[in-house]
Write a structure and sequence with these properties.
This protein has a five-stranded parallel β-sheet with strand order 9-4-3-10-11, sandwiched between helices. The chain has a four-stranded antiparallel β-sheet with strand order 6-7-5-8. Strands 1-2 form a two-stranded antiparallel ribbon. The two termini are 16 Å apart. The chain folds into two domains: 3-139 and 215-322, Malonyl-Coenzyme A Acyl Carrier Protein, domain 2 (3-Layer(aba) Sandwich); 144-208, Alpha-Beta Plaits (2-Layer Sandwich), CATH 3.30.70.250. Helix 2 packs across helix 8, helix 3 (54-60) packs across helix 5 (69-89) and helix 5 runs antiparallel to helix 8. With 323 residues, it is an alpha/beta fold. It has helices at 30-35, 37-50, 54-60, 63-66, 69-89, 95-98, 107-115, 121-138, 154-161, 184-196, 220-230, 253-263, 270-279, 293-301, 313-322; strands at residues 3-6, 9-12, 14-18, 99-104, 144-150, 167-174, 177-183, 201-204, 240-241, 284-288, 306-310. It contains 15 helices and eleven strands. Helix content is 48%, strand content 18%.
Length: 323
């Protein structure tokens, strides 16, 4: 077992992960947003940056409005980073001492970089606001969708895709879950082929269109230019494993901006990300933010790694107590 030493106490290799779009729900992480000074201040900082009361949607919904891309991405980031900041500032959790890697799924990558102090909270919120606008506009008027294929490996799904340029693997989530993305007609055809090839289930995702696909390609340059012109980066305190490469970023300002921009039209390599963690000394993975989607995906793939999530105060207290 790989362990890290802090003072006289032995620490397991810990990774923090952050959820992406689709994990939104009314009331998510509300105890941290309203019950702690740090959480309140983080929400105020984000809302001042974007000139929008995102907390009202988090608390009251309605869910169909909260699920809209421009709202869901900001709400999930706000809830996740507020929870993380409470863990760090009010529960005394030292990431530099205790955490070996961070990562986030799609939108969650921004949260991970923010939590690692690579991007300040205000700049992250502004980036996410622009990212969600670009992603939404890229698909306006385009009949596209994303579906999760359960029960097939990514290699099998890729064989079904063949040379179909209108549908691609968007998220390689685990050995048994692959998300495809593209035009509605192409996705439907591949989904049907997947069922015939032995898939257990097909689930249409609640997104506004085909993210992480070729349909987003034309917007990559626009996002990269915005990142270059407006963003302020630091070297992350903890290495962040990036979606596009499934490896920790070899930090430099230009490289980070390029990878963040590429992400919207490229595959999220989540299975490979967790594999990298497992092969590099991680014994415990902690999902911070709403839901347990990433926890459940990772648990199935690597039952030997302890998985937990933090969305409520009792869960945070238990995590800190165990540490």
């Amino acid at each position: 077992m790989v362990i890290m030493r802090s003072g006289n106490k032995l620490k397991m290799g810990i990774a923090l992960i952050f959820p992406g779009q689709g994990s939104q729900k009314i009331g998510m992480c509300s105890s941290f947003i309203t019950g702690f000074k740090t959480g309140i201040e983080v929400m105020e900082e984000i809302e001042d940056a974007i000139s929008f009361k995102i907390s009202k949607l988090i608390f009251d919904g309605p869910i169909d409005e909260l699920t809209q891309t421009q709202n869901a991405q900001m709400a999930i980031f706000a809830a996740s980073i507020a929870t993380f900041c409470v863990l760090q500032q009010e529960f005394g959790f030292n990431i530099a001492r205790s955490v070996k890697y961070m990562a986030g799924h799609s939108l969650g990558e921004y949260t991970a970089l923010c939590a690692a102090s690579a991007i300040p909270i205000i700049h992250t919120a502004i980036l996410i606001q622009k990212r969600s606008e670009i992603m939404q506009k890229a698909l306006d008027g385009v009949d596209s969708c994303m579906v999760a294929i359960l029960g097939l490996t990514v290699d099998k799904v890729e064989s079904l895709l063949g040379k179909n340029a209108q549908c691609v693997v968007a998220n390689d989530n685990s050995n048994t879950q692959v998300v495809i993305s593209g035009t509605a007609t192409a996705v439907k055809k591949v989904a049907q082929d997947a069922m015939e090839a032995g898939a257990k289930k097909i689930v249409k995702l609640n997104t506004s269109g085909a993210f992480h696909s070729q349909l987003m390609h034309d917007k990559t340059t626009e996002l990269e230019e915005f990142i270059r012109d407006t963003s302020y980066f630091n070297a992350p305190i903890v290495p962040v494993i990036m979606n596009v490469t499934a490896k920790p970023i070899d930090w430099d300002t230009a490289g980070m901006g390029t990878l963040l921009a590429m992400q919207i039209s490229n595959r999220v390599r989540w299975r490979e990300t967790i594999k990298f963690m497992a092969e590099n000394g991680i014994n415990k993975i902690v999902e911070i933010g709403p839901g347990r989607t990433l926890t459940n995906l990772s648990k199935r793939a690597y039952p030997g790694i302890k998985m937990t999530n933090i969305e409520t105060v009792p869960e945070m207290e238990a995590f800190v107590r165990d540490e």
